[in-house]
Every structure is written in C-alpha cells, then in structure tokens.
Design brief:
It is built from seven helices and two strands, in the order αββαααααα. The protein has 199 residues and is mainly alpha-helical. α2 packs across α3 (57-83).
C-alpha cells in the first residue's frame, strides 16, 4: 500500500465523520436548505473511486462498511459523553450535548444512505470499467457519481427529515444536496489521476 493510498483512506474516513457530524445542522446556502454535511460529504464518492482504482473493489467495499462502523461508534461515544455528568468545578458544559449529542434518526439515515449509495457507486464504477475499459478515467467518476448522488440525497433526506420538516423543505434539501454533490464531483474529477491502477 502506498502513502497516497493511506492518505486517500484517511481522507475518506474523515470526510464521512465530518459529514455525519455536520448533518445535525440545517443551513441555508444561496437561499436553499441543506444539511451542513453536504459541504464535505460529496468528496467521499470520489475518494471511494480512488480507493477502488488503487486498491480494488474489495478494499472499497471494506472501507464503506468500516466507515459505517466508525460512524456508529462515534455517535454512541458522543451520546455517552453527553450524558456523563460534567465536573462542577468547571461550570456548565451543556453546549457539548446541545451540539454533538446524536439525533438518532439523522445518524441512522446518514449511515443507511451512505452505505447504500457508496455500494451502488462501487457497482456502477465496476460496471463502467468492465464495459469501457480503463481509459477515460474521468468518466468513471462522472458515471458512478451521477447515479449514486441523487440516490444518496433522496434516501438521506427522506429518512432523516421526512415527516419532521415541511415537504418543501425536504425537497429543498434533496435538490440542494444533489446540486452541491454534482458540483463537487466536477471539481474532484482531477483526483482520479493522482493514484495508480490496482494491479
């Protein structure tokens, strides 16, 4: 395993965790609603493509499942820390629980959507290579992300926020998620050329 592969693996896990934490807040960007995790999470699709390219499909699948496990452990850890009594000598520390105590519906929606969409992305990437060969690498990223991005956005938004927020807000989250993820795909395309093909 090369140093670049290690950096890609670590970056994928970091983007997954940051995306899940930030998804607890709904922000308004350019007049549309989105979960703040959308600002970093879209990188995971291209980073997963890099893992697939450099380490193979088994490594990509293992990474997806490992990330889901880490995100579950993170949520449980934050929950435990949020219910532990604070040191009275320090003073009130309610902000931790207010910010990082998990909203289990969002945690579940994030993990289900991440695993399903990333596995779908992996399969589209695999089929692309099988049918088109190893040329036009940038198209692998575009093709796999074009399918997984709307799937991920629909699944996450409706599992996390359906029935909680107004339907228009949920659709706004879906559409803004898709738009940001597609933009991130375009910006991240050059990354596919930074790693070597798995032997």
């Amino acid at each position: 395993m090369t140093a670049r592969s290690i950096v890609v693996l670590a970056s994928y896990l970091a983007a997954q965790m940051l995306g899940d934490i930030a998804s607890l807040k709904i922000v308004a960007v350019a007049g549309v609603s989105m979960d703040a995790g959308t600002l970093v999470y879209p990188l995971t699709f291209t980073l997963r493509d890099l893992v697939h390219k450099s380490l193979g499909i088994r490594a990509a699948r293992m990474l997806i499942i490992t990330a889901a496990g880490i995100n579950i452990v993170m949520a449980v850890f934050f929950w435990i820390v949020s219910i532990l009594p604070g040191d009275p000598l320090v003073g009130p520390q309610d902000a931790f629980a207010a910010v990082l105590s998990p909203v289990w519906r969002i945690v579940a929606a994030s993990i289900v959507a991440e695993v399903a969409a990333e596995l779908l992305d992996t399969e589209v990437y695999r089929v692309w290579i099988k049918r088109m060969g190893e040329s036009r690498q940038w198209m692998r990223v575009v093709a796999s992300n074009a399918v997984s991005t709307p799937f991920d956005s629909l699944l996450f938004a409706w599992l996390a926020f359906g029935g909680v927020y107004d339907v228009a807000v949920v659709w706004g989250i879906v559409l803004s998620n898709v738009a940001v993820k597609y933009a991130m795909t375009v910006l991240s395309i050059p990354l596919i050329y930074t790693v070597k093909e798995a032997s």
